[in-house]
């Protein structure tokens, strides 16, 4: 497994991590998958307090407790929920975050969080107060670094220019190249991109057949059907999923990708992507030609 650095934090991580949101609901199996990931060299595990209303953090905490010093745990805050009630509301207030981090620490069975991320963000949030609170968390040793999970360029730029965020989590894949417009600005600040959704909700794995009316970010069924075939043609020595993951970690601004896994076989396939040779410049050019980059049309800086 190749290693990388978690943005400006200096924290060493595996180039391919594990996005824990899609772990199976069977707790024992989820724990087995996480521990298998550790055995295969994965060191970054991403969760959120919202996932399963805290249950996902509990599973991650249980699985990683025996190896806590060897792994990097990332979680998120801001989506407020009431246990046992459906739905959630956006609450980035410092008062709520103060309570939420204590609950996350308890569920994760740890006294510190490696990367604490704001799970979204708007231009109406109390920005200065949030940043001040995160900095206090760092000073107290409750967190090692902080970041945001956002695809809103105006919010991203605000944090790039006004905080010490280490990372920005963004949906990024062959089918969603919108973040590339902002990579130079992100890289110039020394911030790392965590690529979520590198297999585009399964459309890039070759194991999901599109129906005539299926759509993904403006791509129709024909575009979705040919994507795995192009990935196979470009890199016949690996699976479409592995090539898709490698595409997502190729830009210099990206420090890691966090594909999910609901089955042990998925986990093993994804982990192997971090050990295979990187894609060549020619292979990357062929993929970029097949699916040109689009841009975000909303929430752009004024």
Automatic annotation (TrEMBL):
<dbReference type="InterPro" id="IPR020471">
    <property type="entry name" value="AKR"/>
</dbReference>
<dbReference type="InterPro" id="IPR053135">
    <property type="entry name" value="AKR2_Oxidoreductase"/>
</dbReference>
<dbReference type="Pfam" id="PF00248">
    <property type="entry name" value="Aldo_ket_red"/>
</dbReference>
<protein>
    <submittedName>
        <fullName>Aldo/keto reductase</fullName>
    </submittedName>
</protein>
<dbReference type="InterPro" id="IPR023210">
    <property type="entry name" value="NADP_OxRdtase_dom"/>
</dbReference>
<dbReference type="InterPro" id="IPR036812">
    <property type="entry name" value="NAD(P)_OxRdtase_dom_sf"/>
</dbReference>
<dbReference type="GO" id="GO:0016491">
    <property type="term" value="F:oxidoreductase activity"/>
</dbReference>
<feature type="domain" description="NADP-dependent oxidoreductase">
    <location>
        <begin position="16"/>
        <end position="291"/>
    </location>
</feature>
């Amino acid at each position: 497994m190749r290693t990388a650095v978690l943005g400006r934090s200096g924290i060493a991580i595996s180039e391919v991590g594990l996005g824990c949101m899609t772990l199976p609901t069977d707790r024992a199996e989820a724990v087995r998958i996480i521990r298998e990931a550790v055995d295969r060299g994965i060191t970054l595990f991403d969760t959120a307090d919202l996932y399963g209303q805290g249950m996902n953090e509990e599973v991650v905490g249980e699985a990683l407790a025996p190896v806590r010093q060897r792994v990097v745990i990332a979680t998120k805050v801001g989506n407020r929920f009431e246990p046992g009630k459906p739905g959630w509301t956006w609450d980035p207030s410092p008062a709520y975050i103060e309570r939420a981090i204590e609950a996350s620490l308890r569920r994760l069975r740890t006294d510190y969080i490696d990367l604490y991320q704001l799970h979204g963000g708007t231009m109406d949030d109390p920005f200065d107060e949030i940043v001040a609170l995160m900095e206090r968390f760092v000073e107290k040793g409750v967190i090692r670094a902080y970041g945001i999970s956002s695809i809103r360029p105006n919010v991203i730029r605000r944090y790039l220019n006004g905080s010490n965020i280490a990372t920005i989590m963004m949906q990024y894949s062959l089918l969603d190249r919108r973040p590339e417009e902002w990579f130079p600005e992100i890289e110039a600040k020394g911030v790392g991109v965590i690529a979520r959704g590198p297999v585009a909700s399964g459309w890039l794995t070759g194991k999901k057949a599109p129906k005539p009316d299926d759509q993904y970010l403006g791509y129709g069924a024909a575009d979705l059907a040919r994507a795995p075939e192009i990935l196979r043609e470009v890199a016949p020595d690996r699976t479409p999923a592995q090539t898709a993951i490698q595409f997502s970690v190729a830009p210099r601004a990206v420090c890691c990708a966090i594909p999910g896994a609901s089955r042990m076989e998925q986990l093993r396939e994804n982990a192997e992507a971090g050990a295979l040779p990187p894609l060549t410049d020619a292979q990357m050019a062929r993929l970029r030609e097949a699916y040109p980059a689009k841009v975000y049309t909303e929430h752009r800086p004024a």
